[in-house]
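FYI - complex with adenosine-5'-diphosphate, inputs then prediction.
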Amino acid sequence: MTAGDTARLTVLSGPSGVGKGTVVAEVRRRHPDVWVSVSATTRPRRPGEVDGQHYHFVDDAEFDRLIATDGLLEWAEYAGNRYGTPAAPVRERLAAGAPALLEIELQGARQVRARAPEAQLVLLAPPSWAELVSRLAGRGTERPEVQERRLALAQAELDAAGEFDVVVVNDDVARAADELVGLLTAPSPGASRSSGAHE
Ligand code: ADP
Ligand code: 5GP
């Protein structure tokens, strides 16, 4: 991706277990230059997660400090933990004319929309509800009661599809990754009127 008028903030949202992490990892495997924001969270680390790579794992006091110092572009409480996007790296990235990708939940996506109306909002949706339930259970990282909590939020997240610019169905990881790469590299509306922006 080149610097210049294609620089754009893209938000990827979708219910827990739909495959956001998997699709973003596939995008980065193919295009290591795609920059993805690393969020701060108070959630406990899962096996295999690396501090500073998957998340910045912080305690409540540190999260409070990030909020108080206006260090977060957006933040939300989700299923009992807090998550937020460190503002400075995103601002630096966009100021340098390079695209930025955030993988965040619905309340955060709405805050980004309010603060940066030009951002592109992408919803990753499951092929079916049954498939979502099976993926979340199959991942095996949450206890059944936490899975229930996440599924209760999932329906509201899918009901909000109309708030997004694009819905990508994660039926197949490679195909969904292709579609996301296309969206990341599409010129923002108004940046280049002669070419096919996504709408
Ligand atoms: P999220 O980040 O949205 O919570 P994950 O990326 O952790 O979701 O994926 C949840 C589970 O679904 C994982 O076990 C993953 O391997 C699986 N998965 C992701 N995408 C697909 C797909 N297209 N088809 C089948 N399984 C998938
Ligand atoms: P998980 O605990 O499965 O890693 O993430 C739970 C939810 O939090 C997911 O929907 C994920 O997209 C979202 N999330 C991760 N980082 C952020 C963030 O910085 N801000 C917001 N609002 N949500 C986030």
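The chain has one domain: 9-198. Residues 16, 20, 39, 43, 74-76, 78, 83-85, 103-105, 107-108 surround guanosine-5'-monophosphate (ligand 2) (CB under 6 Å).
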